[in-house]
Amino acid sequence: MKYSARLILFISLAFMLGGCASPRPPTYYLLEPAFVAGDPDGDGQPCMVIGLRPVRIPSYIDRPQIMVRTGRNELAISESNLWAEPLDENIARVISRNLETLTCAEVVNILPAGRSGPADYTLRIQVAAFEGGPGGEAVLEAGWTLSKGESRRTITSQRSRFTKPVPGDDYTSLVSAYSELVARLSGEIARAIADLPPTLPRN
User: Fold this and answer.
1) Higher confidence at residue 141 or residue 9?
2) Which of 25, 116, 181, 186 is the 20 to 30 Å CA partner of 159?
């Protein structure tokens, strides 16, 4: 009887400790630029300034938790795998870095209410899909436009879609795949920038 009482007490304590155990601390992730910084050749032409408007993303992925697709019409969030900064800002920062490496251009962020400096062209990006899952396939779909100066006179408008198999069953592999997709989008935009008319020298 004494042994049974001690056993019951032990089991009760185990349940209490298990219920009070600290959850696993979250892991934070960042998209990273894919290209090594260099000194792009401007072919003697002055480098242009590209004004980047805030990147727009779907509301369902505009959250700290990484969203994963679990089925055709099903999504799930991971409470233990989080973005280290707002996803729209992370995408914008990485695209800026990639473009400055791939082109003779300075990319400046333009706030919705104004601009942070003179821009020869304005880049607008609207992400339509940015999803996948460990061991599955990562997808990036976005529409983007380049317009002259701060106007909405469109020079080029395109819609891009990229996919990549995620090689591992972990979130590090998923985020690495996302970084590669953002790099491919950056490369497509960089080719369009390279075709833009050269700018006049600044005083």
Assistant:
1) 141
2) 116
The Cα angle at residue 83 between residues 78 and 88, in degrees rounded to 5: 120
In this prediction the pTM is 0.82
| DSSP designation for 152 | -
Q: Residue 110's Cα: distance from chain center in Å?
A: 18
DSSP 55-80: PB--GGG-SSEEEEEEETTEEEEEEE
What is the C-alpha R_g of the chain? 23
CATH architecture designation of domain 25-194: 3-Layer(aba) Sandwich (3.40)
pLDDT at 145 over 70: yes
Looking at the chain, list the stretches that DSSP marks H as alpha helix, in order from N- to C-terminal side: 2-20, 87-102, 171-194
In one letter, which amino acid is 176? S
Q: Give the residue-averaged pLDDT of 2-6.
A: 53
DSSP label at 46?
Answer: P
What does the domain layout of the chain look like in residue ranges? 25-194
What's the pLDDT at 105? 87
